[in-house]
Write a structure and sequence with these properties.
With 362 residues, this protein is α+β, with helices and mostly antiparallel strands. It is elongated. It folds into three domains: 2-167; 178-242, SH3 type barrels (Roll); 250-334, Alpha-Beta Plaits (2-Layer Sandwich). Helices cover 61% and strands 15% of the residues. It starts with a helix and ends with a helix.
Length: 362
Amino acid sequence: MENVLRPMIVLVGSVGLTLLLVWLADLLLRRTDARHTETPLWGLLRRCRAPLQVVLLTALLRGTYGETHIPAVERNERLIGHVLTLVLIAASAWLVMRIAAAVVESSYSRYAATTRDPARVRRVRTQVALVQRIVTAIVCVVAAASMLLTFPGMDKLGASLLASAGVLGIVAGVAAQSTLGNLFAGFQIAFGDMVRIGDTVVVDGEWGTVEEVTLTFLAVRTWDERRITMPVSYFTSKPFENWSRGGAQMTGTVLLHLDHSAPVSAMREKLQEILHECKAWDGRDWSLAVTDTTPNSMVVRAMVTAKDADDLWTVRCAVREQLISWLCEHHAHALPRITTAIAVEAPGAYAEEGASRRTGRD
């Protein structure tokens, strides 16, 4: 009977104590979150319940599994202890990453809530995302190293690795030159404020929005929902357009090639009417002027503004479409056309000279 009760007491006691401690921690976080609604950290820390349960249960089993006095457990005591140690290290790393993610996300949320500048918010968002990835990578490396050190003989292997660290460093540096270049370029982008998540950029002739920034690559979402993945070193070695640099507000133009008889004053009035009806126009500025002329036409430029690149595209398309429709309906003569006419003979002596030359040739 004791051989059955003792293992049950150890197992049920460990599970029950784990659930009780996690419930108390969750209750404390809920009450703290209710008292401090301005700080989202306490609510975010509640996501750590699952790794906390694994850590507590593994730690309790690691300390009490020997009290079960089960023959199979006693025969494999070292193996079971080693497995529980590995699980405890992995669960602890999982818990640390969850806590770090909660702290980082809480800091970003508070900053975004108190800052009205969208450019600064995007910059902090980019930096926070990269910092979180760096912390995750460090925790994973430390956890993996700790798990490896639990195996016998790893200390000797570590000594031999340290003895050859110089050679391995040179070989790794040459082999991973491109990867290391992208890694340092990722730091430069994140903390040099070159590109931020949400920025509108033009790379290799493609217009899109920066969707993700990592330490090695950058993803751009184009207007037609495609994803362009590029190494971050591209943005530190080649020129590119960042339409959101210094602010998201933008100015755009619409060029129309019209006949010289186009009613420019009436077009200004129509442009103002179109913009007042366009929700994408931000109301900052607009203008319409003749910017160039040719023997057959003139170039009319309509200048409009918008709060970001997406709205600017909408405004330009609306202005172009409605101005052309209005001209076709009310001022068809203003549309560009090709004028043809019969050549006129030169007057007076030039005409007689030309006629004599033609007679001589005949």
